[in-house]
Structure formats: structure tokens, C-alpha cells
Amino acid sequence: MGRKSKNLKLKPENKESIKDNKLYEKINLEKSGRKSKELIIRNVIKIYFNSLETEYNYFKEIKDKLENFKIIDLKLEIEKAQSKGGKSPLELLEYSVLNKNEKEEAWIVFDKDDFEIDSVITKANKCNIKPAFSNPCFELWFLNHFDYRETFLSTKECLKLTKEKFKKELKKEYVKNEKWFKILEKKTETAVRNSKKQHKEIEKSIFSPSRQNPCTLIYILVEKLLKV
Fold it and tell me: How far does the chain reach from its first CA to its final CA, in angstroms?
């Protein structure tokens, strides 16, 4: 049995330590026409998605949570899909390269599915863009909230297991465009722990990212944002 996860609570950092951190800067709100005061903002993290549904909604909920503490400014940017399946990982990378600001920390969130992702990950690293991929798909991240898996999963199998797990554990029907972060929040630490273990185990092999299944790097981004 894993240790019981608690509801994640973010604690604002000491104001003096924030001022000493180079990642923080003072912003004069007079420039925006609002009442003059200083707002301390951490480095901007911009996340690009090749999905209009599940991933975006999940991180939008995290963004809302963070904004309540007025410490982290998380910008979410999403490109409209050209087809029902959204843009490919390569097109997503190309879009992020063209639109990223040098002062921002850019991430791309995408699934392996049937795409070739090895070259995308190599190019992303060269462009200083962090790839948070899931192999086979984002639903693996959801499954990791409940238990640890180490056997190969196809996208179809992953979706099937997710639906079964949500129905059994949450008494809810899994729908891709629903908002799931708050519902799963108490299990986030478990998801990070299981995903990290998967990643470390599969890194011992000589497999390229496209063959690292099951594996999701969503935990790195979530861990960074929520300080799990």
C-alpha cells in the first residue's frame, strides 16, 4: 500500500527570499493603467498543446490554482487544431519555436500515439523547449494516480483502462473534455511517484523515447508547478 496522499497545499514563499531570487522581478502595474503597486512574479512558464481538450483543461485548472497565490504566472497557449486529432508533435514544436519568448520557459505537451517523436524531442532540446510527452497517451498520467504499471500499453488499451479505473475508483464516467485535476488532486503525489518510477526504470534500457512505453514526463512539469 502506498502512503496516503494529502490535498496539495501551496505555501507562498518568504517575501524577502523572493526578492533575492533572480527568477523574480518587480512589475509596476501603473503601466497597465491599474492602481500602482508592486506584484512579484516568478518566471513565466508557457505550455503549448496539440490537444484542445484533456491536457489543456487539466493544466488550466492548475493555472487557476496557482493564480490564487499570486506567486506563479502560468500562461497557457493553445493552437487550434487543423483536424480533429490536433496538430502533430512536429507541428507543435515548430509553432512553439516561432512563438516562444526568450524570457519564458517553454514546454510542449504531446502524446506518442502513432507519431514519430524521437526527432521531435531531439529538436526540442536543441531549441531549449522542454518536451513533456506521454507514451502511449496522456491517459497514462491519469492511470498513474491509482497504481504503478510497467507493461506495454497501446493507446486503445490505455483509454479502456482509464475508463474502467474511473468508473471503479471515482464512480465517474471518463470523458476526455472534462476537468479532472480537482477530482484527482489528492492522488497527485501518487501519480508523480509512479510516473517517476516508470521513467527511471525505462531509462535503464537503451530504448529511444518512441519505445519507452509506458512512460509519461507530465510528472516533471506537474512536480515543478505544484512542488509535489
Answer: 19
* Dist. CA 58–CA 37, nearest whole Å: 32
* CA 106/CA 18 separation, integer angstroms: 22
Give the ranges where the chain is alpha helix by DSSP (H).
15-20, 54-67, 89-99, 118-126, 139-143, 155-165, 181-184, 188-203, 218-226
What is the rounded CA–CA span in Å between residue 3 and residue 149? 17
Per-residue pLDDT of the chain (228 residues; tens, 9 = 90+): 444 444 555 444 444 433 333 333 333 333 444 443 444 455 788 898 887 789 989 998 998 888 776 655 556 556 554 443 447 899 899 888 888 888 889 999 999 988 889 999 999 999 999 999 999 999 999 999 999 999 999 999 999 999 999 999 999 999 988 999 999 999 999 999 999 999 999 988 888 999 999 999 999 999 998 886
- Report how far apart, in Å, the C-alpha atoms of 95 and of each of 81, 179, 202 are: 12, 25, 29
Half-sphere exposure of 16 (CA within 13 A, CB side): 0
Q: Please state the pTM of the whole predicted model.
A: 0.78
Cis peptide before 214 (omega within 30 of 0): yes
HSE, side-chain direction, 13 A CA sphere, residue 20: 5
CB 108 within 8 A of CB 92: yes
Number of helices (H) and strands (E), helices first, in the chain? 9, 7
SS3 74: strand
Report the length, in residues, of the chain: 228
Q: Count CA atoms closer than 13 A to 175's CA, side-chain side.
A: 6
